Amino acid sequence: MRAGVIAACLTGLLLAVSPVAAETVPPVQVTGEAGGPHQILLNGRPFGPPDTETWSLSVDGAYPTAQAPKWVVLAYGDGGNACEGSYRVLDLSGAVPVLSPQIGTCGIYALLPTDSQLIFDFETEVWVYSTAAGMQKLPPQLPEQQVRAGVDAYGRGEYETALSLLWPLRLSPLPEAAYTTGLMALSGKGMAADPARALELFGLAAELRFAPAMVRLGQMTADGRGVTADPPAAARWFRLAADQGDATGQYALGQSLLDGSAGRKDPASALHWLLLAADRLQQPELRAAAQAAAAQAEAETAPAQAAVIRRDLPLWRPRTAPLFSGPGDLRAWLGKHPHDRVRGHILLDVPDLKARLSAVLGAETVAAVRPMTVAEPVAEQNGWLLFGGCTPHACNTGHFAAVINLVSYDVWACARLENPAAETDTLLWGGPDRPAQPRPQPPEEDDLCAMPTGPDGLKAFLKTAEGS
């Protein structure tokens, strides 16, 4: 009994004196109120002089982790509509911390951190930070040239360069950017291996009907890399690639039909695809494998049916489909921002819609409204698509609205544009067979070019459009 009491007392004493784990404090902090001054603290001590010119200063991210960072991104705000005016990188990798020059001009960025670099993707420019080279701006060039340079760098094994060129264009209409970045994410070249990210990137390229990406998605789905293994779903990816004439996709589809992993065993269909693949594959090993599989499929197919398949093989032609085939495809933006990318395009860049808007408002006006990125989600009302936008920090004097009939593809649109040469803004309205005629928009008059909202918004917009 005595021993038990002593043990209980000791246990209570230990519990009473056991220290409570303190919350770990990040090595980089910022103190100060809105309007300044602000002070960067490094391990609790001031780093550099106080910042007395910045409205707001905060830690925007730390990489690879907040508790053990190599690089810390600092956001400097100018106080304008809560916009972060610029960014700097505090590099902690060396014996002496280094603060990079400022980058960015009130823009939102996407960031790809790797072990060797930080890639900042702003809407109009790309910056790359590395400890060795510091902060470097990617030289502007045409997207097609940038993709070609990135793919060439990948082929030479210059993966960091390839990543800095291609990742910023992953959402563009150029599928090789997302596809090659996906290859790097899959293999761990230039960035940490990440099958889930590779799947996402291959998916972006596949949306653009890029057959090699469809094959990769099929292979990863079949193997269960980054996704639950699903052989029938893999076969559907292989078929999409095979229909476009991709020889590897044809071989993979033929194999899945031959062994039944496509969901059914079909030697005759397998023979068709394997013969096509054997005729198109460039790699000798794959060609030999396709020929051997075709021989097995033919052995399992009735001779008369096999003869018909061989006879009709020269008649086969690849099938391709346009990215956007009609107004109904625009529903892909419902609930999204007009500048969100679907199949590599923002809404204003869908070729047929852009042509119709240009006929209504004029090509110069369409170019002028493209940077109007402040917008509500795209909506649908009574079979019409509704969207619009305005100029950041200047919505009163720079905005547009448009409605599109999702059956007839009729377009009505308006735009209010600032006119520095006059005391009034310019207002334009246009619709089917009614090209817009610019007219002044006096400040005292009601602004009739407004995004249609509410249950009667579409009706009021169309009524105003027809009377304008």
Structure description:
This protein is α+β, with helices and mostly antiparallel strands and 468 residues long. Among the domains are: 116 residues, no CATH class; 141 residues, 3-Layer(aba) Sandwich (Inhibitor of vertebrate lysozyme, Ivy), CATH 3.40.1420. It has 14 helices and 17 strands. Strands 12-13-14-15-16-17 form a six-stranded antiparallel beta sheet, sandwiched between helices. The chain has a four-stranded antiparallel beta sheet with strand order 4-5-6-7, with no helix packed on it. The chain has a four-stranded antiparallel beta sheet with strand order 8-9-10-11, with no helix packed on it. It is flat and about 85 Å long. The N and C termini lie far apart (98 Å).
The low-pLDDT segments are: 1-21
Q: Say what the CATH topology of the domain at 327-467 is.
A: Inhibitor of vertebrate lysozyme, Ivy
The portion of residues forming beta strands comes to 15-25%
- Radius of gyration over C-alpha positions, nearest whole angstrom: 30 Å
CATH class annotation of the domain at 327-467: Alpha Beta
What characterizes the major β-sheet?
A: 6 strands, antiparallel
Distance between the termini: 98 Å
Can you count the helices? 14
Strand elements, count = 17
Overall 3D shape: flat
Mean pLDDT across all residues, rounded?
A: 90
Structural class: alpha+beta
Summary?
With 468 residues, the protein is an alpha+beta fold. The chain has 14 helices and 17 strands.
Please give a handful of descriptors for the protein shown.
468 residues; six-stranded antiparallel sheet; four-stranded antiparallel sheet; disordered N terminus
